[in-house]
Amino acid sequence: MTLSTSNIWLYWFMETFDLLISTILLRPYVFILLGLYFLAGSLQLGLKRIVVFTILAYVIAFISEYSSTRIGIPYGYYYYTGETHGKELYISNVPFMDSLSYSFLGYFSYSLALLMVSPITREGCRLELPNTPWYSKKALFLSTVLFVIQDVLIDPVSLRGSKWFLGQIYYYPEKGIYFGVPLSNFLGWFMVGFAIIYCFQKLDQKMGWSMECARNALMGPSLYFINMIFILSVTFYIGEYLMGMISLSIFSLLFSIAILKIRHALTQPGRAPLDKGTS
């Protein structure tokens, strides 16, 4: 009996491991982005905080997707086609990488929001955020908005996955007004993004982890825009020019605001080294 149980667990582990490897081969661009996310997050938040952020975001995202594909909350009804079953790892009916992607999308948004709302100082050729408002409502709200903006670019392109290498992995039973995406989807992203950042802020504050951060100010925001550039490239590649122009306008506005903030910091004289305190 013990041997039989051990064989079952071994079979399950090997099957899951094979699916994970298959997932990496099927979605290499996601795993590259995931690796860069862990690097950026470790530099800014510290390894412990970024691991906690990842787990928290994944759990919230999975619950939201599991719920929406069954009762339509919070995104409205949508369904995974199951086209990639056997090719990538699924948890229940939800692709593992889909929920996991909320982690880096959430962090990129949070990191850019912190850059936008924080005073920036220059230490030689380095930019620092000495008084990062980790737990502020302004950072929470802006992170949530930036999180939704990413989906405004991503979701219409993902919905046309049959035109590029993503594949047609999901669909909405009723066509939405924004290039096929219903507005309820963006409301759902707002709720989920808010939940991820809010829960992380509260847990982070309670545990006092922000004292351990390394304060890298630019890598997370850079990845936010790099991811946008990738999505924009796919949008134009599949011939969705109107969608691409709208997305490009959104990208240009956000990028210009970020550049202006950074440029202002670079024109300021360098300051004395800062202590490790945060506010």
Output the keywords:
279 residues, mainly alpha, two-stranded antiparallel sheet, 8 helices
| Low-confidence parts | 271-279
The overall pLDDT average reads 86
Helix content: 55-70%
Number of domains: 1
Distance linking N and C termini: 58 Å
Question: How would you portray this structure in words?
Answer:
- The chain is mainly alpha-helical and 279 residues long.
- The protein has one domain (27-266).
- It has eight helices and six strands.
- The strands form three sheets. It has a two-stranded antiparallel sheet. Strands 2-3 form a two-stranded antiparallel sheet.
- A hairpin with a 2-residue loop joins strand 4 (121-123) and strand 5.
- Helix 5 (137-158) packs parallel to helix 7.
- It is globular, with a radius of gyration of 20 Å.
- The N and C termini lie far apart (58 Å).
- It comes from Candidatus Scalindua rubra.
Provide a short characterization of the protein structure:
Keywords: Membrane, Transmembrane, Transmembrane helix. The protein has 279 residues and is mainly alpha-helical. Helix content is 65%, strand content 5%.
Detail the topology: elements first, then pairings.
Blueprint: H1 2-26, H2 28-44, H3 47-71, E1 79-80, E2 90-91, E3 94-95, H4 96-117, E4 121-123, E5 126-128, H5 137-158, E6 170-171, H6 183-207, H7 219-237, H8 241-266
Antiparallel strand pairs: 1-6, 2-3, 4-5
